[in-house]
């Protein structure tokens, strides 16, 4: 089995596709949370900021978890 680090462009394209998929999923989850708890955020600016930053922060957390499992695999 080839190592992922040696695939070059295919690895980058694959990780980009994973990042896009995770961003979509995270955006849907955060948006549904905000709609269910709309009374907690009376100001639209806070809701927009949360809707933008939380999915991006979740991506970093998810890739950190991915790297953690990958290190344990070796």
Mean pLDDT: 86
Characterize the biggest β-sheet. Answer: none
End-to-end CA span = 13 Å
Question: Uncertain runs with pLDDT below 50, 5 residues or more?
Answer: none
- Based on CA inertia axes, which overall geometry fits? elongated
Name the helix and strand elements from N-terminus to C-terminus, one letter apiece: HH
Instruction: Supply the helix-strand structural class.
Output: mainly alpha
**Radius of gyration from the CA trace?**
16 Å
E-strand count: 0
Strand content: under 5%
Enumerate how many helices there are, as a single number: 2
Determine the fraction of residues in helical runs and give it as a percent range: over 70%
Describe this structure in words.
This protein has 74 residues and is an all-alpha fold. The chain is built from 2 helices and no strands. Helix 1 (9-36) crosses helix 2 (44-73). It is elongated. The mean pLDDT is 86.
Kindly summarize this structure in a few lines.
The chain is mainly alpha-helical and 74 residues long. It is 78% helix and 0% strand.
Q: Keywords for this structure?
A:
single chain; 74 residues; mainly alpha; 2 helices; 78% helix; 0% strand
């Amino acid at each position: 089995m080839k190592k992922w680090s040696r695939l070059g462009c295919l690895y980058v394209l694959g990780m980009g596709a994973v990042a896009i998929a995770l961003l979509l999923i995270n955006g849907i989850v955060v948006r549904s949370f905000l709609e269910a708890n709309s009374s907690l955020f009376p100001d639209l600016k806070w809701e927009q900021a949360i809707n933008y930053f939380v999915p991006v922060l979740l991506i970093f957390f998810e890739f950190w978890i991915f790297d953690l499992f990958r290190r344990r695999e070796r």
